[in-house]
Amino acid sequence: MENWQACLADSITDPDELAGYFSCDADALREVTEKYPMRISPHYLGLIHEPGDPIWLQCVADPRELAEDGLCPDPLREEALSPVPRLIHRYPDRVVLLAASRCAVYCRFCMRKRTVGCPDGEWERYGLNDAFGYLAEHPEIRDVILSGGDPLLLTDDELEDILRALRRIPHVEIVRVGTRVPVTLPERVTPRLCRMLKRYHPLYVNTHFNHPLEITLESAEACARLADAGIQLGNQTVLLKGVNDDPETMKRLMQKLLAIRVRPYYLHHMDLVRGTGHFRTDVRQGLAIMEGLRGHTSGLATPYYVIDAPGGKGKVPLLPGSARFEGDGLILRNYRGEMIHYPS
Known about the structure:
By secondary structure, the chain is of the alpha/beta class. The chain has a nine-stranded mixed sheet with strand order 1-2-3-4-5-6-7-8-9. It has a three-stranded antiparallel sheet with strand order 10-11-12, with no helix packed on it. The model has no long low-confidence stretch (mean pLDDT 93). The protein has twelve helices and twelve strands. 28% of the residues lie in helices and 18% in strands. It has one domain: TIM Barrel (Alpha-Beta Barrel).
């Protein structure tokens, strides 16, 4: 067992374990974890200062997850856009490949909350042969995004098998890996992993930092190892109520990301996912945050603020002054020219 696997094995998964570190109602949390599992890695647990702080809110089960919020388990229609198991084909030239069904920390705001970490979400029971076959038969696909779960929870050999298979498909030009392990399990980013990844360029890694407290010596070193392997690093942040929904926090996060060689890429407005409604902010708040970035810090530190339109209709970028509000919602225009009504 490698060191990172031993660290993962020491994660907190039971509310009673958490109660040994912090005061909390274990019984109330257990009701939540029976539906939406909890896992907190030792590294991420060490970032919590007190219950209710920005790290706690992201990783500790919350009874509000069980509230009837009127939201949908799969608002982006990923299952309907899955032509074969473990593959999502939403855009013309790129696909998402669900490489793993587990994460080092189960984020309470996860867009795939319905399946990630849950027994029904063990996508690995379906092989990848159908996915690779689909890719080979569709020459329009040039970009494959490995997601999940977290692809870096696979072993080096398992991950290399996937990368090797993708590189055998001539029209697949770009491979991207979406991972939160530099934040939650930095021990996983080993020199051996980086040597392996370096063999499969052009390879891009998108990390997922949401708060300045997540940028630690350990996470910075993990990002440095990836960057030193020639991998371009981007970051996708989710706008979360009580975590990062103010301009100063967001500015500090984006500036600190650049300092560790990670380029801010997207700031996601919360998806309309069941069990996550308590994290949602008003779109106007997101636009105010973008106002607080533009001109107040480097353009390099300014991500795209995007809404992933319901129904799998794609990401729509928002800029201050660009959103048209009507009544209790706003009107978006997606990349296909479709007009979409979205609750603000």
